[in-house]
Design brief:
The complex is a heterodimer of chains A (about 160) and B (about 775). Chain A has 6 helices and 5 strands. Chain A is of the alpha+beta class. Chain A folds into 2 domains: about 80 residues, Beta-grasp domain (Ubiquitin-like (UB roll), Roll); about 70 residues, [2Fe-2S]-binding domain (DNA polymerase, domain 1), CATH 1.10.150.120. In chain A, strands 2-1-5-3-4 form a 5-stranded mixed β-sheet, sandwiched between helices. In chain A, β3 and β4 form a beta hairpin. Chain A is globular. The C terminus of chain A is likely disordered. Helices cover about 30% and strands about 25% of the residues of chain B. In chain B, the strands form 7 sheets. A 7-stranded mixed β-sheet of chain B has the order 3-5-1-12-9-10-11, with helices on both faces. In chain B, strands 7-15-14-13-8 form a 5-stranded mixed β-sheet, sandwiched between helices. Chain B has a 4-stranded mixed β-sheet with strand order 18-26-27-28, with helices on both faces. In chain B, α10 runs parallel beside α19, α15 packs parallel to α16 and α18 packs across α19. The longest helix of chain B has 28 residues. Chain B is globular, with a radius of gyration of 27 Å. Chains A and B meet through α1, α2, α3, α4 and α5 of A and α1 and α18 of B.
């Protein structure tokens, strides 16, 4: 067992894990943060996307020990109290979810996407960058709409790059 | 319609927990003392088990128990069953081979469970499962149904000689032969309907908990129908008595049919929990899902269409071989029969139809209902054939369909179904307008100038939902009734709980069902809680599949609301000293029409519970239940038009435009209905161009991960153009037809009709991968 320490959703956490423990299992089973999901074994589906040190990462593709010392944000950590994150609100407003299973990963991917592209995001880029997130319910139509809507509301300054 | 009533776009009540990561799926559940299960699975497609050595595994860290099929049988756990009896045309019953939850003598598909390890952690269970040594004596393998019917094919079950489960027919063979003898023209086609894996994003999971203190079992499971799971696990598998078994299906991450069935794993988790004395959780990984979740489709069909000299259809002849896999799954027999051949008349007036279906065992995963279940197969047969016939005749596919449309209702087809209502002209009109059919040739020319091949394909589908009148399905062999139940509990403060036997796993029932209350009493949807998915809370239910939760589930709620409304009016009439017939309930108030006399809704509800001033003889309380048994199937129908561009250099197909014009009857929440169509279209387009389950000759599943099985990604799909027309279903109080499966039913033939139009070669099988499209294109150039 190896001791790990990391900041998760702004709170410092510690744990002892097997070296082979995936970050997603540490979050779900040690910390009880079950909003991050596992939908495949091959890092294809993206249900487990979180942010590690500000970047979108598939938490099934990273060991818990690799994340030691990092700042981790999960779906549970992006709303401001009872105030939804704009991307969360956009998914609801545009019916960008049905069963909800892929949704946390979709939202975390979308937040990262919008942070990188801002209001310059267009449909083609959204679809291309959703390559690593699979949804079986929505046909992506309303997910794309939700992400574009949230991007259009994002600060234009970022889009200048 | 109120702001939140019928027809309103109400944002989903359930969304908040999902978008904040607070959904509660089975794998999120944890109970004190819980341990983890991992299954030992067969690496062979067909083999005798000659020995199981657990010596090394027993000694591994964390191992609590290793259990096998002989112990399971010894404890009296029954074999898995198929719940729909279909007889062959010679009258003999279907031939069902035994399917034990853990195989003890023969394995018949790769991935079949042989033993289970219970250990302290998930990883320890997996490690020990890998260390269980099973000796196998390999047997010959067959994976394709047509091969399994051949002389000398490997035999799977002694109960089913020649691997034939049934040889079934529907329709009038003599009349059909007669129609063909008079035909001016016959169109023939061979149809392959590819095998698919449903792939809900949440893998299946089960948590079994036996509590010796109460002698009571609880099973959390990823089910679309928890009450059916409880019934089957107690009545047939002897896992636990029904009154001592609670089944909970909490948030479930998609189903698409694959979570209807009761699988070996949940049976084993419950049984192992008692055996090992600990709560036992198992969660499928994705490869296990490919290896064990029931697959869908897998038909080979020869179809012939007879036409007269005026291009009117005289008859249809269909001969299908359906691959049911290694065992008969719960509703597997109904899919290629009563959910398939009964829809072969499509939207067309066809006097004579005959269908013959052979169902066959092979060394593959069991095949059962997957979104659409039989109806996509029927639609693909008809709509590929209609398009092909139109092309052969050199006439417009739309005009050919129009000429043969059924135009008066009710319409009795020659294959059981009596269509109650519809307007096929209206959906065709809406579809062709939205697709700008008139402008297509110009777009084709423009694409050609860019070096792309543009094609247009149409599909006019009809399907059957609202499954189903219990007496009718009983006469056709169903082992259950297909009604639904509901209970409406009005609290003393006027808030309402709706308990329903339907189960939501993405469909948004918590919102749409609440809209019925908003419509009826003018209460906000936030004052309504929809309770489902727990056999201890909801008395009984048949669950959600076959797009039945609107037409059947909501009809039961309507019946219960009728009773609540009647009682509330009686109480109000008594208190207000008015005539019961003059009481109206609107905007949360109970009024005497034409006067200023009124009570708040909450006052009536409180009055029902204080019981200080009720009419003589009235029982206190305001809580009513109802069972609703449908009177007929419902018949959603529509027109789908797909426009594609094929790159002739690579064979890559791009879906440029997809139009769906559907008639679902009454729409409760248009936002949710559109979402259902989008998802169905993605699955249908996936079937048409991407998805296919493939076995090699040894029966190894070579598409067992998302690296190998092509799930539709965002990049593969366009924004969809969807719309609805409305003819009300006369068979249920809301006039609803159902919208959950239409997208997956109507879209595959539209896509393939479009690609074959683009490349000028009608010989193309699904999935139309770039390689196949390129080859088909080059075969005619």
């Amino acid at each position: 067992m190896t001791d790990v320490t990391m900041t998760v959703n702004g709170r410092e956490v510690k744990g002892a894990v097997e070296d082979r423990t995936l970050l997603v299992h540490f979050l779900r089973e040690n910390l009880g943060l079950t909003g991050t999901h596992v939908g495949c074994d091959t890092s294809q589906c993206g249900a487990c996307v979180i942010h590690v040190d500000g970047k979108a990462v598939k938490s099934c593709t990273m060991l818990a020990v690799q994340a030691s010392g990092s700042a981790v944000t999960t779906i549970e950590g992006i709303a401001d109290g009872s105030e939804l994150h704009p991307v969360q609100a956009a998914f609801r407003e545009h019916h960008g979810l049905q069963c909800g299973y892929c949704t946390p990963g979709m939202i975390m991917t979308a937040v990262d996407m919008i942070e990188r592209h801002g209001s310059a995001l267009n449909e083609a880029t959204v679809r291309e960058e959703l390559d690593g997130n699979i949804c079986r319910c929505t046909g992506y139509h309303n997910i794309v709409k939700a992400i574009l809507a949230a991007a259009n509301a994002a600060p234009a300054t970022i889009a200048a790059e | 319609m109120g702001v939140e009533g019928i027809g309103a776009k109400v944002l989903r009540k359930e969304d908040r927990r999902f978008i904040t990561g607070r959904g509660r799926y089975v794998d999120d559940m944890s109970v004190p003392g819980m341990k983890f299960a991992a299954f030992v699975r067969s690496p062979h497609a067909h083999a005798k088990i000659t020995g199981i050595d657990t010596g090394a595994a027993d000694a591994m860290p964390g191992v609590i128990a290793i259990l096998n099929g002989k112990q399971l049988q010894g404890d009296g756990i029954g074999n898995l069953i198929c719940g729909w009896a279909v007889s062959s045309k010679d009258g003999t019953p279907m031939k069902m081979g035994a399917w034990p939850a853990l195989a003890s003598d023969i394995v018949r598909h790769v991935g079949q469970a042989v033993a289970v390890v219970v250990a302290e952690t998930r990883a320890q269970a997996r490690d020990a499962a890998d260390a269980v040594m099973v000796d196998y004596e390999e047997l010959a393998v067959v994976t394709k149904a047509v091969d399994a019917l051949k002389d000398g094919a490997p035999q799977l079950h002694p109960e089913a000689p020649g691997n034939l489960i049934f040889d079934w027919e529907l329709g009038d063979k003599a009349a059909t032969d007669e129609a063909f003898s008079k035909a001016a023209k016959v169109t023939k086609l061979h149809i392959h309907n590819n095998r698919l894996s449903p792939n809900p994003m949440e893998p299946r999971a089960a948590l079994g908990h036996y509590d010796p203190a109460e002698d009571h079992y609880t099973c959390w499971t990823t089910s679309q129908n928890p009450h059916v799971a409880r019934l089957v696990m107690s009545a047939f598998y002897n896992v636990a008595p029904e009154h001592k078994l609670r089944v909970i299906a909490p948030d479930v991450g998609g189903g698409f049919g694959s979570k209807i069935y009761i699988y070996p794993e949940e049976i084993v988790c419950l049984w192992a929990s008692k055996r090992a004395g600990v709560p036992v959780k198992w969660t499928s990984d994705r490869t296990e899902a490919f290896l064990t979740d029931a697959h869908g489709r897998d038909h080979e069909t020869d179809v012939e269409l007879a036409l007269d000299a005026d291009n009117k259809i005289l008859g249809l002849r269909v001969d299908t071989v359906a691959n049911l896999g290694a065992y008969m799954s719960l509703f597997s027999s109904s899919v290629p029969t009563y959910l398939y051949a009964t829809l072969l008349s499509g939207q067309y007036d066809i006097a004579a139809i005959h269908a013959n279906v052979k169902a066959v065992y092979t060394n593959t995963v069991p095949v059962d209902a997957y979104r659409g279940a039989g109806r996509p197969e029927a639609t693909y047969v008809i709509e590929r054939t209609m398009e092909t016939a139109a092309r052969e005749l050199g006439i417009s596919p739309a005009e050919f369909r129009r000429k043969n449309f059924i135009r008066s209702f009710p319409h009795q087809t020659p294959v059981i179904m009596a269509y109650d209502a519809g307007d096929f002209e209206a959906t065709l009109e809406a579809g062709t307008k939205a697709a700008d059919l008139a402008g297509f040739e110009g777009r084709r020319a423009e694409a050609k100038a860019r070096g792309k091949l543009r094609g247009l394909g149409m599909s006019c589908y009809i399907e059957a939902c609202g499954i189903a009148p219990s007496k009718a399905v009983g006469s056709l062999g169903a082992g259950v009734g297909l009604w639904e139940s509901a209970e409406v509990r009005v609290n003393p403060v006027g808030t309402i709980e709706i308990l329903t036997g339907s189960h939501s796993h993405g469909q948004g029932h918590e919102t749409t069902f609440a809209q019925l209350v908003a419509e009826r009493f003018g209460l906000p949807v936030d004052n309504v809680q929809v309770v489902h998915g727990d056999t201890d809370k909801v008395q009984f239910g048949m669950g959600t599949y076959g797009s039945r939760s609107g037409a059947v589930g909501m009809s039961a709620i309507v019946k219960a609301l009728d009773k609540v409304e009647a009682k509330a009016k009686k109480i109000a009439a008594h208190v207000l000293e008015a005539d019961e017939g003059d009481i109206v309930i609107e905007n949360g108030e109970v009024k005497v029409a034409g006067t200023d006399k009124k009570l708040g809704w909450h006052e009536v509800c409180l009055g029902a519970y204080t019981a200080h001033n009720l009419p003589d003889g009235m029982e206190p309380g305001l809580k009513e239940g109802a069972f609703y048994d449908p009177t007929n199937f419902t018949f959603p129908a529509g027109c789908y038009i797909c426009e594609v561009e094929v790159d002739p250099d690579t064979g890559v197909t791009e879906i440029i435009q997809f139009v769906a014009a559907d008639d679902f009857g009454r729409v409760i929440n248009p936002m949710i209905v559109e979402g259902q169509v989008h998802g169905g279209l993605a699955q249908g387009i996936g079937q048409a161009i991407l998805e296919g389950v493939h076995y090699d000759d040894a029966g190894q599943l070579i598409t067992a991960s998302y690296m190998d099985y092509a799930m539709p990604r965002a990049w593969d799909l366009p924004m969809f153009k969807v719309s609805t027309t409305e003819t009300l279903c006369p068979g249920n109080p809301l006039g609803m037809k159902g919208c959950g499966e239409a997208g997956a039913i109507g879209s595959p033939p539209a896509v393939i009709n479009a690609i074959t139009d683009a490349i000028g070669n009608n010989e193309l099988t699904m999935p139309a991968t770039p390689e196949k499209v390129w080859k088909a294109l080059n075969a005619v150039q």
